[in-house]
Amino acid sequence: MLKDERQHMEPGTPLDRNLAFELARVTEAAALSSARWMGKGDKIAADQAAVNAMRFALGNVDMDGIVVIGEGEKDEAPMLYIGEQIGNGMPPQVDIAVDPVDGTTLLSKGLPNAVAVVALAERGSMYGSPGIVYMEKLAVGPLGKGKLSLENSVAENIRILADVKGGDPDDLTVVVLDRPRHAALIEEVRAAGARIKLITDGDIAGGIMPSLEETGIDMLLGIGGSPEAVTTACALKCLGGDIQCRPWPRNDEERAAAERQGIDLQAVLTIDDLVKGDDVFFSLTGVTDGELVKGVHYFPGGARTETLAMRSRSGTVRRVQAVHHFDKLMRYSALAYDQPET
User: Fold this and answer.
1) How far apart are CA 92 and CA 64, in angstroms?
2) What DSSP letter does each residue of 107-118 carry, written as one string?
3) Strand 115-122 to strand 281-286: parallel, antiparallel, or no bridges (unpaired)?
4) Which end of the chain offers a freer environment for a tag, N or C, measured as fewer CB atoms within 10 Å?
């Protein structure tokens, strides 16, 4: 733990140690296990390998965790299910958001930007998506924080961000999921003069990109998964970025369910609505190469990984490049890193 982190901690607070490196080991395990399935066309097997590894690694962490954001509500897939208890039961009590592979389709096709993700925050701090699978999203980096709004037009948000960055709209690049539902949005972005990067999957990675200057991305717009919105918010708390969301019911059934729960479908959820407080831990390990991190690179008897490990309280972002030797790992781990799990 860094000296400045110790000085700003209050003794006895629920999160009184830095869990970032422990989470890094979790996402490394998921990435190492799932990367064996890269390009093999079986996203279910890839996800299952990541889930098994992540569950095993999380079980060894000193915490009393509950999965608030998990898998399985949207897709029929193996899951770390919502409500599952994670950790060895010791303090602190925490909420957990997991995405063992954000971008299973990307991984199954050998495409860039598949990542393994875990976030952690104090118990009761994460927004539990109330049965609405999708949200409209706007994500930006630190320069755009507090200056843009989902209540603005697309053109207005692009103009404001261009002004903030001291450039023109055609200097900006907006990342958008390549979906038929975004046809009108894409035309609005183009009409406003900005450039577009279409991604086929993986909107956690897409939402983080604007907060890392080296990616060349300035903004994320569009409709994506509600659980992914909360996980992205955890990362942006650490990076100083911003995200706003609005529930997007797919049909009358979801709209009626939202009304029964008293959910205002026009209300904009802020980053603090999605994850409260300012002590959030986040880890992301590359499974395939991408803008954020390199993927798993195997060599005989081992592999190399790259991980972003972050904590919001300190603002520290660590890029961890690790070398793993499977013969040594498997002396104390039940995971078969040297072969794909079937």
Assistant:
1) 6
2) HHHT-S--EEEE
3) antiparallel
4) C
Taken as a whole, the chain contains a residue count of 342
Only one residue has tokens 């059934």, namely 253
CB 42 within 8 A of CB 25: no
- 17 pLDDT above the threshold of 80: no
Q: Burial letters for 199-212: b for 16+ Cβ neighbours within 10 Å, e otherwise?
A: bebbbbbbbbbbbb
* Amino acid 262: pLDDT: 82
pTM of the full predicted structure?
A: 0.89
Q: How far apart, in whole angstroms, are the C-alpha atoms of residue 228 and residue 232?
A: 6
* Region 116-134 average pLDDT: 89
Q: Is the dihedral of CA 199, 203, 205, 206 positive or negative?
A: positive
CB 113 within 8 A of CB 44: no
Structure tokens at 27: 């996402």
First to last CA, the chain: 38
> How far is residue 252's CA from residue 261's CA, in Å, rounded to a whole number?
14
Q: Are 57 and 118 in contact (CB under 8 A)?
A: no
Instruction: Work out the angle at residue 55's Cα, subtended by the Cα atoms of residues 89 and 87, and round it to the nearest 5 degrees.
Output: 10
Give the HSE-up count for residue 161: Cα atoms under 13 Å, Cβ half-sphere. Answer: 33
**Residues linked to residue 220 through DSSP beta bridges, in sequence order:** 139, 175
Residues 6+ apart with CB under 8 A from 126: 68, 69, 95, 97, 230, 234, 274, 275, 276
The yes-or-no verdict on residue 13 having pLDDT over 70 is: no
**pLDDT tens, 86-122?**
998 899 999 999 999 999 999 999 999 999 999 999 9
